[in-house]
Amino acid sequence: MDRLQKLDAYVSKLGLSQQELENWVLSRIKASHEPLILTALPIVYKRLQEFYVLSGLDMTRKDDVWGWLLPSNVLMKKEKGAPSEEEMMTWHGVKSYAEAHVFNGKIGHLPYSDRLVKIWLPEIVIKARSTAMTLNENGIKADDESMSACWCAEEKMSNCAQTFVLYSSQVSLGYKSYDVDRILLQF
Q: Which DSSP state fits 129?
């Protein structure tokens, strides 16, 4: 029996869940690697369908960087939607994406417009831009959010939902079948 088989048998004997094992491994990695690169906002990492947050950029997890954390557990994706995600960027697509992900044990949803109006303040905009700049400086593509818009949770009609325009901090209406270029999720 090789070492990995012995480890599998031991983990099974202990009855550890997949989540407990992942948390244990992550805590050991955190304790043993280089310090994090400071960022203005905490960095959101994604593994499978789950998000986790570190206070800065961990270059050993560069491929897992999804975006950054805004106040009130709102996650902002580091890039605008890619052409390959076009269908997913519709209101229904982003809503389904949110509901398929977990952060801190909670299922995601689209953010409410009143929440975005309260948190998208000039100081947060500056921090978001600074965080994007830090990611770009370290080889991780991150877009400036200034001309972006995101979907909100509020449905107005069967074909319309609210959007939040980041550059003007205004709530607007959008047709659910069209794509909006930035993903913000709330947990």
A: H
Which three-class secondary structure state does DSSP give residue 5? Answer: helix
Stretch 156-164: mean pLDDT, rounded? 96
DSSP three-state, residue 116: helix
Query: Residue 126: is its pLDDT beyond 70?
Result: yes
Adjacency order of strands within the sheet including 74-77: 106-107, 102-103, 50-57, 37-47, 65-70, 74-77, 184-186
Could you tell me if 122 and 169 are in contact, meaning their C-beta atoms sit under 8 angstroms apart? no
pLDDT, tens digit (0-9, with 9 covering 90-100), for 25-56:
776 665 555 689 999 999 999 999 999 999 99
Note whether 110 and 176 are same-domain residues: yes
Shared domain for 150 and 82, answered yes or no, is yes
Cβ–Cβ < 8 Å for 36, 62: no
Task: Give whole-number Cα distances, 88 to 82, 85, 101, 177, 182, in Å.
Answer: 10, 5, 14, 10, 11
Domain that holds residue 154: 71-186
Which amino acid is located at 11 in the chain?
V
Helix (H, G, I), strand (E, B) or coil at 181: coil
Q: pTM, whole model, 2 decimals?
A: 0.79
